[in-house]
Design brief:
The chain is an alpha/beta fold and 214 residues long. The chain is built from 6 helices and 6 strands; from the N terminus they run H-H-E-E-E-H-E-H-E-H-E-H. It has a single domain, classed as Nucleoside phosphorylase domain (Rossmann fold, 3-Layer(aba) Sandwich), CATH 3.40.50. The two termini are 14 Å apart.
Amino acid sequence: MLARLSRRARGVRLALVHGRPHLYEGRSQAELERAVSDLAAFGVTRVLLLNACGGLAADLAVGDVLAATELVDLQAPPTDAPPRLPVCDQAAAARVATSLGPAFGARTGVYVAVPGPHYETPAEAAWLAGLGDVVGMSTAPEVRAAGRAGAQLCLLSLVVNRASAVGSHGDVLATAARFRGAIGAALEGVVLARWPELGAPRDAAEPAGNDSPA
């Protein structure tokens, strides 16, 4: 993916972060946000986030992908109305969903972040479906950190189970592994769909030092 992107979007520098800590592991907010905060400190202005999730909406099946427009933050301190954090506008999210093509059922929607670690009961899943389309136990800290830094976001959530209908945790891990390669192969198109300017021909007169960190 990196080699193909470098040919289509010359001059774009990429930084990759593998894995993430979770709130339920007892980590501090600084630890949870560190990856995005550090990238922003180094000049990164565009952030692509990936996660696995449970499907809440009836039309989302295992293997589908949600391009998030916002995140409902149930990891934040309880309030009458949970914070709704913007991810990207509807038009940009729709371009991303379209870019995934026939390999995935993809659409835009809302990700709900819960503290974890647990899978939802049927009653919990029904309540959460009133807040968003998919549910997971991560990503809220990164979205918060990106928002403070003014970074542009893209969030892809792969549905690996139907909420409240989990066979076992092993089943969920196996499903995520099954789609890993296809998601990786799609990322070049995702990046260029979210940020079309990265695929624009480079101005021959532009100094090489003006490369935009992704």
